[in-house]
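Input chain follows. Return structure tokens only.
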Amino acid sequence: MIKNILIIDDEEQILEVVEAYLMKDEYNVFKASNGKDALDIFNKEDIHFIVLDLMLPDLSGEEVCKKIRSKSNVPILMLTAKVSEGDRIKGLDIGADDYMVKPFSVKELLARIRAIKRRLDKDIIKKDIIRFNNDDLVIDKSKMEVIKKGEVLNLTPTEFNILKILSKNKNKVFSREELVINILGFDYDGYDRTIDTHIKNLRRKIEDDYNKYIKTVYGVGYRFIGG
């Protein structure tokens, strides 16, 4: 359910106009004019939706999006004056759910928020809990929790996302590059062997002598083999 919306924009007029329309639709509105304040609000409040301008005075919108995506799947709609296809693709690749170019219609913005809300409501109806090997391993996607033998595991967001994508595509082989793009983002420029470290830590948490879940496909990558 979308109730609390965070608007991040350095233009006061946009903040005020969008806030007025959202409050008219009975949303609770939080506002920030820079990236640092936005992250502070996000970490303190239960935010359900974010409207994020890419051009901010301190952190860029891309940086804010990446930081939020590292810990949350909250829907993000980006606002920007950038109009090139490359800019739009980059925004979507780093985790935005939708994209609007300035100047924009506030009524269209509200329509897009409602469309994303409908999509989320449908997703919630779908099965969110996956069980393996007689509940040896349980993945609760809606709560972002993984349970091993009845105990909730302390997974990092990256570990959870790796497990989610592998388990959702059982027996499909993912290369390291594919996992990097899907988990860390298209523009991640680090060493792709970083995925190996995350997989190693994930295996240590979810596997034991009797239940193996992630198989290494040598020279290629990894696949999920849970029963």
